[in-house]
Design goal:
Strand order of the largest sheet: 1-2
Shape: elongated
Protein name: Heat shock protein DnaJ domain-containing protein
Structural class: mainly alpha
Pfam families: DnaJ (PF00226)
Number of helices: 8
Order of helices and strands: HEEHHHHHHH
Distance between the termini: 108 Å
Radius of gyration: 41 Å
Organism: Rhizobium grahamii CCGE 502
InterPro entries: DjlA_DnaK_co-chaperone, DnaJ_domain, J_dom_sf
Keywords: Stress response
């Protein structure tokens, strides 16, 4: 192997970098302290990402008295804590859109009193000018029994149910019938039927 070859002249090597002199750590920022400031302590609210540099003893002292919320009222602190739950991002309450506001209650859907708005007649077999077939409520057995007790059919409106209830209560009240037991049983049955219809959203 020839050391005076032209190929050796073309080989380039990196020069060794001169090691930069290590900077001495800054001194403690506590007044009158000359120790090394190697421990970070937050500056405070509205100065996120900024830190003081203290020695070990003074960072402990600083942290004992540090209060992120100093200068804020109780209401502002409560608001900050509430907003911190969502990471201080804006939020909206559930159901602020129009369709959610106008959506039926669960009790209405369960009782069958709610009807889907169907302007094109896809669901109910209509063509937008009115129902092709009269709509009827789908009643559960207890609801059907309650309507039967009140002497009403399933298509009765809320006002009809209320007026019928008042009429039956007056008619079968024990005071109006001289304490008749048969009338008292009927009176209880009417009250129970009305309460069931009311709970299920019929009136």
């Amino acid at each position: 192997m020839r050391l005076d070859s032209k190929y050796f002249d073309r080989i380039r090597t990196r020069r060794k970098r001169e090691q930069e002199p290590e900077q001495a750590p800054p001194s403690c920022q506590w007044d009158g302290c000359d120790k090394k400031g190697v421990h970070r302590a937050p500056v405070g609210r509205n100065a996120e990402g900024q830190f003081f540099l203290f020695c070990f003893e003074h960072v402990k002292e600083y942290n004992k008295g540090y209060n992120y919320f100093s200068g804020l009222s109780d209401g502002e602190i409560a608001r900050y804590q509430k907003e911190a739950i969502t990471g201080h991002r804006p939020t909206w309450t559930v159901g602020v859109n129009k369709s959610a506001k106008n959506s039926p209650l669960h009790s209405d859907m369960r009782s069958g009193t709610y009807r889907v708005r169907d302007p094109f007649g896809f669901v109910n077999g209509t063509k937008g000018n009115g129902p092709r077939f009269p709509e009827q409520r789908k009643l559960k057995s207890l609801e059907a029994k309650a309507f039967d007790t009140m002497g009403l059919d399933a298509s009765a409106t809320s006002s009809e149910i209320k007026s019928r209830y008042k009429e039956l209560v007056k008619k079968h009240h024990p005071d109006a019938n001289g304490g008749d037991r048969g009338s008292e049983e009927r009176f209880r049955a009417v009250i129970q039927a009305y309460q069931l219809l009311k709970q299920n959203g019929f009136c």
